[in-house]
Amino acid sequence: MDRGRMNQNGVVQPLLTDLYQITMAYAYWKSGKTDDHAVFDLFFRTNPFHGEFTIFAGLDECLKFLDSFHYSDSDIEYLKQTLPEGTENEFFDYLGNLTAKDVTLYAIDEGTVAFPRVPIIKVEGPLIIVQLLETTLLTLVNYASLMATNAARYRMVAGKHVNLLEFGLRRAQGPDGGLSASKYSYIGGFDGTSNVLAGKLFNIPVKGTHAHAYITSFSGIGELKTRLLKHKTTGVTGDLLELAVQYRQALSQLLDVSMEESSEGELAAMVSYAIAFPDGFMALVDTYDVKRSGLLNFSAVALALNDLGYRAVGVRIDSGDLAYLSCLARETFERVGENFKVPWFSKLTIVASNDINEDTILSLNEQGHKIDCFGIGTHLVTCQRQPALGCVYKLVEINGQPRIKLSQDVEKVTMPGHKNAFRLYSADGHALIDLLQKVTEPPPAVGQKVLCRHPFQESKRAYVIPSHVESLYKIYWQNGKIVQPLPRLEQVRERVQMSLKTLRNDHKRTLNPTPYKVAVSDNLYNFIHDLWLQNAPIGELS
């Protein structure tokens, strides 16, 4: 079990819920429903970001919540003060002894692609306890899945050869939002984070350079207190500043840039930073002017480091025309590398930040950028294109009897009863359709024709002959303990990419993606519509 999985957020506790869950629990208790057995489905109705897939995330946090579910003495005292006067003391005794030992939780694997209406979690157990779990499970799954999906979309548009770093802590919705963003962006396909605590808690690679403040804190080379650096292999001390100044003069002619136009303070800052991190020298080059100052000063310091046995890492550009400036930087590095016979110089890393979103990356791709790594913050962690996923938690069965919620909006009609879900695959390995069935039905068989029906539109139906059938649900929590081996964060991250590969490209494209089909069996279709007719009131015209 990895370090990240051992750390439970202390905020996640039974009182992290809506008051009406507890008032309903009292009303259930008062009505003698303590032995009622219920099944709830947790699902969403539409995919986020105008896309046609969602990445399921947050399951490990749900399991940790179940494992620790218990009302403390101080929780009970607070509820005694909060619930209406007249609430019976015996109810508080009941709450004080409540745990999740009688709950069974079914779920699809974390990191799996999921689709609307297919429950991603099913919770079964005593009515009161499974009702009390609702809000907390929703808050643990909603943002996690939204964030992982957002990150996965960035990964797809950036391509697999470009690194993605999450830089969003300062813009996130508070500390918990910042930590969750770091964790679930990593699951979704990002390569690292700037968030140091997330690195410690979840074992995520931590990356970062420096801010513009570091550059502007120097005004000239006279401020440098240290200018000497030992050669990496020989140990002989060299004057990094002197070497950098010499290279700066030569580069000024090569790059046709006037030294008078470049910032001496920027040069001093870069020399200082290079002495501190000679093996990890990456500099911000847009504090003053990328072309006339930043690239000149960086290249001079990088060549000076090379003389002392070190290799610079690269540059970060945080403003301006990123496509043009990245191409300029790459061209500069190639010229410098060729002129000074330093082959690796042409391969220096170019990092771009500056309020980047999906559309920005798509535009940069069209413009032929030379960026190796994107640092993405605000648009990623706040999910600005869609700030909420909209998962819901609906009662579908009680004491073995199905329950249905009706609505004039057909999209809000629930699918009743305890169900199984299967993913049917074509011969080429792509997912064809997700099929919901009653738990009493036999699973679909490979090579056997299956009638798949739209849940609510009678004419929409098709026969499917699957080449592979995947049962989506596993029992993750039963008899008071986790009953499946939980994957490490890196394994969940790998599963996301593997699961996405099972979708056809037209389901994943950013513009007008093809909807993925979710169907019900013929048996379940008839069951839903019979129950609908039984529960729908009959109108009267007069």
Automatic annotation (TrEMBL):
Q: Which residues form the Nicotinate phosphoribosyltransferase N-terminal domain?
A: 15-142
Source taxon at top rank: Eukaryota
One Pfam family here: NAPRTase_N
* Reactions the enzyme catalyzes: 5-phospho-alpha-D-ribose 1-diphosphate + nicotinate + ATP + H2O = nicotinate beta-D-ribonucleotide + ADP + phosphate + diphosphate
Enzyme's top EC category = ligase
Say yes or no: keyword Phosphoprotein present: yes
- Tell me the keywords, alphabetical order: Ligase, Magnesium, Manganese, Metal-binding, Phosphoprotein, Pyridine nucleotide biosynthesis, Transferase
**Do you know which InterPro entries this protein is assigned to?**
Aldolase_TIM, N/Namide_PRibTrfase, NAPRTase_C, NAPRTase_N, Nic_PRibTrfase-Fam, Nic_PRibTrfase_pncB, Nicotinate_pribotase-like_C
Q: Which residues form the Nicotinate/nicotinamide phosphoribosyltransferase domain?
A: 164-414
Report the PTM annotation: Transiently phosphorylated on a His residue during the reaction cycle. Phosphorylation strongly increases the affinity for substrates and increases the rate of nicotinate D-ribonucleotide production. Dephosphorylation regenerates the low-affinity form of the enzyme, leading to product release.
List, separated by semicolons, the cofactors it needs. Answer: Mg(2+); Mn(2+)
Q: Where are the transmembrane segments?
A: none
- Domain (Nicotinate phosphoribosyltransferase C-terminal): give its ranges: 419-527
GO terms in the biological process aspect are: NAD+ biosynthetic process via the salvage pathway
**Protein's UniProt keywords contain Magnesium:** yes
The pathway is: Cofactor biosynthesis; NAD(+) biosynthesis; nicotinate D-ribonucleotide from nicotinate: step 1/1
**Assigned EC number:** 6.3.4.21
User: Could you state a single Gene Ontology molecular function term?
Assistant: metal ion binding
Q: Which Gene Ontology CC terms are recorded?
A: cytosol
Give the protein family: Belongs to the NAPRTase family.
- What is the role of this chain? Catalyzes the first step in the biosynthesis of NAD from nicotinic acid, the ATP-dependent synthesis of beta-nicotinate D-ribonucleotide from nicotinate and 5-phospho-D-ribose 1-phosphate. Helps prevent cellular oxidative stress via its role in NAD biosynthesis.
The name of this protein is Nicotinate phosphoribosyltransferase
The record lists the organism as Musca domestica
